[in-house]
């Protein structure tokens, strides 16, 4: 056994999922094929990537938990920081360059692994310590080094381009790699899909555990702790895909609630709706699931109406989603379904086509319908070269405008929110205010919002739903009744605060 592993695979115990290093070998093979098919890539080129760096908190020796840079993880599956990696485009041979650590490291951080240990651990062809990177690459006589440099259409930031001592002596091209490797990440392999199904399974079960344990008087962070504990204890997931959003009551109208300025700190009061957007992450592959439900387990009439509108929008998209459809059109399906429901509720009035023309749906759902998923929660490839982002409300928030194709993994996450700043602006806008029924809208202010988010895979004939949580009103109320007999009582002083 080398490097603490009996085989080149990642696993957190027999009760969790085993990820073979063949997953990353296949990723590299797919990348090499795309690069070989690209007439601009010269023979003898080598891809060179730089992994994430170890960090310390400013003015401290505290080391945050490391999470690998996403492109590097997709290519090599390396857990540790400060690595470089290379792939020979013509042959697919993979080379890793781990940092050469001092002997004193072993005292504090554990056994130092050899080059052979790393070669076995990650199933690559060669390993050389990073202080030899220029020497090793020179011996390969590459026609060019392909480095990663390109814009992330979600974050607006550029990817990390590899830099090392001696790179100036090589011919470097930083234009060819980014679009090709990003496009590879858009389409998941069978092994990636199998891993993502596991992440969805555990995260779905964790959401069910939260529902069963929910009771008025809890704090939002206590619900978050139930989710995180389940993911790690049962699923071996030390990390979350993103900061948990555990919004209750009016906080449900804060789209990215849970950040440091609003850290899931409110007490959940009887009658509040909960909007819990949480997803576990296993070996850097994520999930993204949102469940909305009443904290006391019983929908009021208003809560039921709002929830049913979003549920209907979700299922309308699922029914229409198949290869060849435009994601923009899917967003509009969700908007139209929601506006039709709002009209029945008396919140809006008039012709729905006319409402769509003035983008009224964006007042109630300002975000996009969904996004790609994979090694990043908002995965890459949403706006490849040649695609244009809309400037219209709602549509400009779409994280992709592509036509969907098999092996794409996306979220479907329609929502319906009562956000004062958006409602007030719409009421002052003559083009939109003609459709709004102010007196009815005012009765919904403070309700917060509802979002339903599921993870899907586009298949040859339609789509596969990976998420498995209660979704209908009846299913939600049933599971929450089921959980009442097993709930841990709240601390006595907390019960008094309800």
Provide the spatial order of strands within the biggest beta sheet. Answer: 6-5-4-3-7-8
The amount of helix comes to 25-40%
The overall strand count is 19
CA-based gyration radius: 25 Å
Q: Can you walk through the features of this model?
A:
The chain has 498 residues and is of the alpha+beta class. Helix content is 36%, strand content 13%. The protein has helices spanning 22-37, 70-76, 105-109, 115-122, 133-140, 177-186, 190-213, 220-235, 301-320, 327-345, 352-357, 361-364, 420-427, 430-433, 438-444, 473-483, 492-495, and strands at 9-10, 19-20, 46-50, 84-88, 94-97, 126-127, 145-146, 172-173, 239-240, 245-248, 273-278, 280-282, 285-286, 289-294, 409-412, 415-417, 449-451, 454-458, 463-465. It has a six-stranded mixed beta sheet. A hairpin with an 8-residue loop joins strand 1 and strand 2 (19-20).
């Amino acid at each position: 056994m080398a490097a603490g592993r009996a085989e080149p695979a990642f696993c957190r115990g027999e009760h969790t999922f085993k990820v073979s290093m063949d997953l990353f070998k296949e990723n590299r093979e797919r990348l090499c094929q795309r690069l070989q098919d690209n007439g601009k890539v010269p023979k003898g080129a080598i891809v060179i990537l730089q992994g994430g760096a170890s960090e310390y908190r400013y003015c401290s020796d505290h080391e945050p938990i490391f999470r690998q840079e996403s492109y590097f993880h997709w290519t090599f599956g390396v857990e540790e920081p400060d690595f470089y990696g290379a792939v020979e485009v013509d042959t697919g041979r993979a080379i890793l360059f781990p940092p050469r650590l001092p002997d004193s490291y072993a005292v504090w951080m554990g056994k130092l692994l050899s080059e052979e240990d790393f070669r076995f651990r990650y199933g690559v062809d060669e390993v050389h310590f990073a202080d030899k990177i220029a020497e090793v690459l020179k011996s390969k006589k590459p026609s060019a080094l392909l480095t990663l440099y390109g814009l992330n259409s979600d974050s607006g930031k550029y990817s990390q381009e590899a830099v090392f001592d001696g790179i100036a002596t090589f011919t470097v091209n930083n234009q060819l790699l980014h679009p090709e490797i990003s496009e590879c990440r858009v389409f998941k392999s069978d092994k990636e899909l199998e891993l993502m199904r596991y992440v969805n399974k555990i995260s779905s079960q964790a959401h069910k555990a939260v529902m069963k344990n929910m009771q008025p008087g809890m704090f939002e962070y206590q619900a978050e702790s139930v989710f995180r504990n389940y993911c790690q204890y049962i699923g071996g997931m030390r990390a979350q895909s993103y900061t948990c959003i555990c919004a209750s009551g009016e906080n449900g109208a804060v789209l990215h609630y849970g950040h440091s300025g609003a850290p899931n700190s409110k007490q959940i009061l009887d009658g509040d709706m909960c909007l819990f957007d949480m997803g576990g992450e296993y070996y850097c592959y994520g999930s993204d699931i949102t469940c909305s439900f009443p904290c006391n387990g019983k929908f009021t009439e208003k809560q039921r109406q709002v929830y049913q509108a979003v549920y209907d929008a979700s299922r309308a998209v699922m029914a229409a989603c198949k290869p060849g459809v435009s994601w923009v059109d899917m967003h509009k399906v969700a908007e139209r379904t929601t506006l039709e429901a709002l009209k029945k509720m008396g919140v809006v009035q008039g012709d729905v086509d006319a409402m769509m023309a003035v983008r009224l749906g964006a007042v109630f759902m300002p975000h996009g319908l969904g996004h790609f998923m994979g090694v990043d929660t908002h995965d890459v490839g949403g706006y490849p070269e040649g695609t244009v982002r809309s400037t219209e409300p709602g549509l400009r928030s779409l994280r992709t405008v592509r036509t969907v194709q098999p092996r794409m993994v996306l979220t479907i996450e329609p929502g319906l929110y009562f956000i004062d700043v958006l409602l007030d602006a719409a009421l002052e806008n003559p083009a939109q205010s003609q459709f709004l029924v102010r007196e009815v809208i005012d009765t919904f202010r403070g309700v917060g919002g509802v979002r339903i988010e599921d993870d899907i895979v586009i298949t040859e004939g339609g789509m596969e739903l990976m998420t498995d949580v209660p979704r209908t009103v009846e299913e939600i109320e049933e599971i929450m009744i089921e959980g009442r007999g097993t709930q841990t009582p709240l601390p006595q002083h907390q019960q008094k605060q309800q």
